[in-house]
TrEMBL record:
Keywords: Signal
Keyword Signal annotated: yes
Pfam families for this protein: Polysacc_deac_1
Positions of the NodB homology domain: 109-288
UniProt keyword Signal present: yes
Leader sequence residues: 1-29
Low complexity: bias regions: 38-47
Name under which the protein is recorded: Polysaccharide deacetylase family protein
Gene source species: Kitasatospora herbaricolor
Segments for region (Disordered): 29-61
Length: 298
């Protein structure tokens, strides 16, 4: 069984990459052709000028198709994420207290999208992520997903990692130490069995108890090697920000949920996620894969 599943599968916003190719292929209007024969010797303008792109450029149809994928979801493509850093800014250890973080120390203009719980299992959302190739990290609650573990397997197959979000979603600080341990360990065992990968990260419901010794000890005993919080949380149409200026910062972790019309005032999971991507796109950020910025224990 693969421990932590730290393959370096990376899926990027392919539509955004292709859009870059399209822009690069669009030149300005061709200069006026002189009446005489063009100079063709070495160093002449005609010799040094690259040929004008044409609609037969093989990259153009692919770029058009990629833009069309984003248009299908009524979205503008995101900027492409940079290559993952060789020197991972978050380095985890195999033993001892686990770190608690809500952002990644990076100057890359990227944010990280995380999805919690697993209550809404909308097939259209699987289609959306398959189309757009936007990376997400999933923090699943055992008792919320156990009626359909299979729903999350296509999302995992896209390269998205599954992490631990307790057994039944309690406020952890209200529970005694042995219950906190059970909440983390039971979910860890179930998710590992179902998905063949031991979750590396843990998120407490509501962020409750994240900095307490009891929860840190429970996480250490059960296997995850970091506790992950967030800087922004997605609502229905906009984000709630912790920063006073209400702007994204490089390395911010964003919280969203698997939610549907019942919880989103009639909106669908794909509509909510589209709004999230629009807010990110408006501020010029790319979405990177959180795990690509974390070095797991040796």
């Amino acid at each position: 069984m693969e421990r932590y599943g730290w393959n370096r599968t990376r899926t990027y916003a392919a539509g955004a990459l292709a859009l870059t190719a399209l822009v690069a292929g669009c030149g300005s209007a061709a200069p006026e052709v002189p009446s005489g024969p063009p100079a063709t010797g070495a160093g002449s303008p005609a010799a040094s000028r690259p040929p004008a792109p044409t609609r037969t450029d093989p990259a153009t149809p692919a770029a058009d198709a990629a833009v069309a994928v984003w248009t299908k979801w009524n979205l503008k493509p995101l900027p492409p994420a940079p290559a993952p850093p060789a020197d991972k800014p978050l380095k985890l250890t195999a033993t001892g207290a686990v770190p608690v973080f809500s952002e990644v120390p990076t100057t890359d203009k990227v944010v990280f999208v995380t999805l919690d719980d697993g209550a809404e299992k909308d097939p259209k959302f699987v289609e959306m992520l398959t189309d757009l190739k936007v990376p997400v990290s999933m923090f699943l609650t055992r008792d919320i997903v156990k009626n359909d573990y299979g729903y999350f397997k296509p999302l995992k197959a896209l390269g998205n990692h599954i992490h631990n979000h307790t057994t039944d979603h309690p406020a952890m600080s209200t529970k005694p130490a042995e219950v906190q341990k059970s909440e983390v360990c039971d979910a860890q065992a179930a998710l590992t069995q179902q998905y063949g990968v031991a979750p590396m990260l843990f998120r407490p419901p509501y962020g409750d108890g994240a900095h307490t010794p009891a929860l840190n000890t429970a996480v250490q005993q059960c296997g995850p090697r970091a506790i992950v919080l967030w800087r922004e949380s997605m609502q229905i149409h906009d984000m709630q920000y912790q920063a006073a200026d209400k702007k994204l910062k490089p390395g911010d972790i964003i919280l969203a949920h698997f939610r549907g019309p019942k919880d989103l005032k009639g909106e669908t999971m794909t509509q909510m996620f589209g709004e999230l991507l629009s807010r990110i796109q408006e501020q010029g950020f790319a979405v990177a894969r959180l795990e690509d910025y974390i070095k797991p224990p040796a």
